Amino acid sequence: MEFISYLVNGISLGSIYALIALGYTMVYGIAKMLNFAHGDVIMIGGYVVFTAMTTMGLNPWLSILIGIVFCTLLGVVIEKVAYKPLRSATSLAVLITAIGVSYFLQNLALIIFGAGGKTFTSVVNIEPVSLFGGQVTISGETIVTILVSVVLMVVLTLFVNRTKPGRAMLAVSEDKGAAQLMGVNVNRTISLTFAIGSALAAIAGVLMCSTFPSLTPYIGAMPGIRAFVAAVFGGIGSIPGAMIGGVLIGIIENLSKAYISSQMSDAIVFAVLIIVLLVKPTGIMGKKIAEKV
Amino acid sequence: MALLEVKNLGISFGGLRAVDGLNLQIEKGTLYGLIGPNGAGKTTVFNLLTGVYKPTIGTFALDGEVLNGKSQAQINHKGIARTFQNIRLFSKMSVLDNVKVGLHNNCKYSAFAGVFRLPSYFKQEKAMNKEAMEILKVFDLDKEASVTAENLPYGKQRKLEIARALATHPKLLLLDEPAAGMNPNETEELMQTIRFVRDEFDMTILLIEHDMRLVSGICEQLTVLNFGMELAKGETSAVLNNPEVITAYLGE
Can you tell me the mean pLDDT for B95-115? Predict the structure, then answer.
């Protein structure tokens, strides 16, 4: 019975990773870069919602909306200021810039909000659910996280596959040059990708801070790395891959915390990544890269 | 006035003049051929006309509007579309979606409407589907609409590239070696398709081709390039019998 509760909590944690991993994978697929500042956008989202809700006393829903809008704009601005000038630079330059942006955001938060942890008030006020005659209790946060993530993933999948901006994203990710010559505005498509990824990160931030209420400038870094692992695990560039990868990483992390060792959980997550990459270098859903000779 | 007016167009890569002082006038509705030996600069001309390269000297104008210096997407909006020498379809997307990417700019609804599936989304997607299917029907690809592009046979992929380019509603269509890798039967069929596109869509077509059967069969006018410079131009039959052209192709 304990197993079920660990599993459900793992799925919930994994859903948060999946939402973050979607930002990594979409940006990689379309702009061909690893945005290592993505994790810190979650942290900024947490602080913005915290400020709106606790400091300014606004309605939680309004606060979340402000957080989403803020992060969306932040994502677009980061891309315009830091990455766009490097569009034709080597990928290493872009990668280092992304790490720089990551430290910049962390230290900015450190200056503004201080190093001390803030206590985030959960935005979820649903009673925990008891299953199997009280043997298993699932918190409201867990349920809401899973539901919200499923809805967002369905909406995102439909958006990418069935709409005009989504098709433009797919086209740019396959062949930027050909897409441009068919009249697709690549800059706008990349901005849209950053906007969507950052909006998802803001939502992930709120869900994460509701489950783990301590807010510090570094809370985004480690989930960001785990979500990156999830994206690679699922096959970077693939949207369903990020979803599956995220949920699996969450489950693996939670089960290894429960049954093996909580200190070892990160080591286990990364060991699983290494094994998957040895067996299937492109990740679970990764595209086969076959060169015609 | 000619539809496409190219004046003294040129580009250098380092010290190499890849295209030098090219002049072209293409009247509306013409099937115009651009030929020349390998490395003569034909594809470079296409890259200049579509904004992939920015010309070092000279200008080109479509319908009187000067287009050099504009971005690839802008030039496409203004009415120049192209296909590629080596096929560059969106190979993981369906045949229908490939054409719908081409229709991209003829459809206006916001990303917001797409996320929340507002009525404008359904209305415009429906219209796009209808138009995309009509274009596919012209190329006899309507039955393969849901097939992933990479699974189409070679000849049909070439046709799909033309269909996708036409979906952007161009005034001028650039075809880069449309018959490359085709057998004589497929080439014959392609010639009919190109003629049909010209007549049906009232299209002006500029094409690069090595297959002389296709060139002499459908092109009305030709420009011959050699080492980036114009060697000859004029009516197809006259150009092909020009001794200088024969020398450039076959040697002394």
Answer: 85
Both ends of chain B: CA-CA distance in Å? 39
Is residue B143 domain-shared with residue B73, that is, in the same domain? Answer: no
CB A137 within 8 A of CB A130: yes
- Tally of CB atoms within 10 A around A214: 11
Residue A95: both structure tokens together: 């990668």
A164–B102: do the CB atoms touch at under 8 Å? no
Q: Which of these three, B146, B169, B192, is where a domain ends?
A: B169
Predicted confidence band of residue B27 (pLDDT cuts 50, 70, 90): very high
Residue B191 lies in a domain: no
pLDDT digits (tens, 9 = 90+) for A119-143: 888 887 777 887 777 777 888 888 8
In the prediction, which pLDDT does A207 show? 92
Show the domain range for B12: 1-79+172-178+204-252
Task: Test A174 with B121 for CB contact under 8 angstroms.
Answer: no
User: For chain A, what are the domain ranges?
Assistant: 2-219
- Which of A158, A182, A203, A287 best tests the B interface by mutation, with the highest count of B CBs <10 A? A182
pLDDT digits (tens, 9 = 90+) for B156-179: 999 999 999 999 999 999 999 998
Quick one: closest CA in B to A287, which residue? B92
**Looking at the partner chain, which of B82, B104, B115 has a beta carbon nearest the beta carbon of A155?**
B115
The alpha carbon dihedral of A251, A255, A256, A261 has a sign of positive
The verdict on B69 and B131 lying in the same domain is: no
* Residues from chain B contacting residue A288 (CB–CB below 8 Å): none
Give B-chain residues touching A166 at CB under 8 angstroms.
114
Task: Please tell me the pTM assigned to this model.
Answer: 0.88
Question: To 10 degrees, what angle do helices B154-167 and B184-201 make?
Answer: 10
Contacts of residue A290 in chain B, CB cutoff 8 Å?
none
Query: Which chain B residues are Cβ-neighbours of A165 within 8 angstroms?
Result: 111, 114
Would you call B220 an interface residue with chain A, using a CB distance cutoff of 8 Å?
no
Interface ipTM > 0.95:
no
Q: Which residues of B touch A170 (CB under 8 A)?
A: 90, 92-93, 97
Residue A283 has pLDDT above 90, yes or no: no
User: Given pLDDT bands bounded at 50, 70 and 90, which one contains residue A287?
Assistant: low
Q: Same domain, yes or no, for B43 and B116?
A: no
Could you report the per-residue pLDDT of A219-267, keeping only the tens digit for each? 998 999 999 999 998 988 888 899 999 999 999 999 999 998 888 888 9
Question: Which of B148, B131, B144, B208 lies closest to B173, judged by CA?
Answer: B208
Cα B20 to its chain centre, rounded Å, is 21
Handedness of CA A222, A228, A229, A230 (dihedral sign): positive
- Considering only the C-alpha atoms of chain A, give the largest distance between any 2 of them, rounded to a whole number of Å: 64
A112-171 residues touching B, CB cutoff 8 A: 155, 158-159, 162-168, 170-171
